[in-house]
Amino acid sequence: MDSTTPTQQFYDAFETAYSHFNTRLFFNELPPVIFTITRKLKCMGYFSPERWTSNAGENCHEIAINPTYIANNTLIEVLQTLAHEAVHCWQTSSGKPSRNGYHNKEWAEKMESIGLMPSDTGQPEGKKTGQNMSDYPIQEGAFLEACRALLKDKQFSLPWLDRQAKPAIQKPIPNWLENSNEEGSSEFELLLTTMAELLPGVVLEEEPQVYNTKTKYTCEGCQLNVWGKTNLNLSCDDCDTKLEPQGV
After folding, report:
1. Residues 133-143: pLDDT tens digits?
2. Which of 16, 72, 193, 229 is most enclosed, with most CB atoms within 10 A?
3. Out of 3.10.520.10, 3.30.2010.10, 2.40.240.50, 3.30.450.30, which CATH number does the structure's domain 6-198 have?
4. Within its chain, how far is the Cα of 52 from the centroid?
5. Where are the beta strands (DSSP E) in the chain?
6. Predicted structure pTM score
7. DSSP states of 2-44
């Protein structure tokens, strides 16, 4: 019986994949990092250099993962996010990153070397450098081979998912990769499966609806708008007119 805590189980999965990629893709040049959770909107993850410090005066990089999108994303998209941020980590430690998070030529070349094609659109022929960048797997590239090895050895398992998952932030999947299922590759089939589907026991909830607690009141004379709680008694002094609630 697994005696580790849910926290350990969750973070161990990313430590395992990070260590595997470090060996297979980065020749063990990646330094240790601290994994954290973020719930930043429209963001699968990010890298933050030397975000942490210790009592001994040592600094450590951070890779943040957003659990609210993981459940509805495919396994390959989750692993792409990790590898993408790992390249930022490599560049900070062994290269020359640009300021303000710009994805420069050195970053793009390293991405290609590990088997991920940088693209600002996530599609072929996209720009390879820029501020906001996506990527897609290179056919028969090192990244896909590393993923297959990770799954074949059954090293990677993410046993915990956010129940209130948001819709997936999808990276376009090349047609050749989608069609690879026809070859009967169990690893490719797993890579194209959503994380929720990989865990049969998972039951996701609908994201809680956020209700607007303020009511809009409008003067029919000058179109003055005021927002406030429901059932307020308001009037416009200029028009000597009562403000009427809208949408009630």
Report:
1. 999 999 999 99
2. 72
3. 3.30.2010.10
4. 21
5. 33-37, 45-53, 59-65, 116-119, 134-137, 215-218, 225-228, 235-236, 241-242, 244-246
6. 0.79
7. --S-HHHHHHHHHHHHHHHHHHHHSTT-PPPEEEEE---TT-S
